[in-house]
Amino acid sequence: MKAAYIIGDPVNEDGVFIARLKKTNTCGMYQCTDGKKIQCLIPPLFDSVDFFRFNGVVTGVWLNGKVGLYLSPWTSASAHLAVPCLYDAYKLIRVIKKQDDDVDYYTTELTYVAVKKNGLWAWIDYTTGELKTDFLYDLTKEKMPYPKF
Fold first, then answer.
1. What pLDDT, on a 0 to 100 scale, did the predictor assign at position 72?
2. What is the spatial distance between Cα 108 and Cα 67, in angstroms, rounded to a whole number?
3. In Å, how far from its chain's centre is CA 57?
C-alpha cells in the first residue's frame, strides 16, 4: 500500500487505520491485526473517513463536502455505503435500554442517527438511508425529540 499518510485509531487500538492513497488521493479504512495482512474495511473512495466508535454500527464517510454513512464490518453481515454522501453533518445517538426479566438484568444499546441538510436536522434509518422524519429541527433553537420509529 502506497499511502500519502496513515492515521491509527487512537481510541480502539485494534489495528484499524485510515490511509490516504497517493495514486488516487482518496481515503479508506483498513485493519492489520497480525502485522502482515491488511484487510480493507472501507474502500478508498472518499475524501475522508471517520473512525467507528467502540462497538459502533455505522460511521461517516465524506465526499465533496457531504457525508454518508457506512455500515460496520463487525456488526453488519454486509458492510457497505448504506446512506449516500448527501448530507452536511450527522450525529450518532446511542440509547441504553435497561431490561429486567426477573432473572437477569441486562442492557441493550440502540443507535439512532440524525442528518443535517440546509441547516435543519432529520432522523434517518442508517441501514437503508430512509428518512424517518422531514428536515424539521434547528438545533441552535431546540432539541430534537426522541425518535419514535
1. 93
2. 27
3. 7
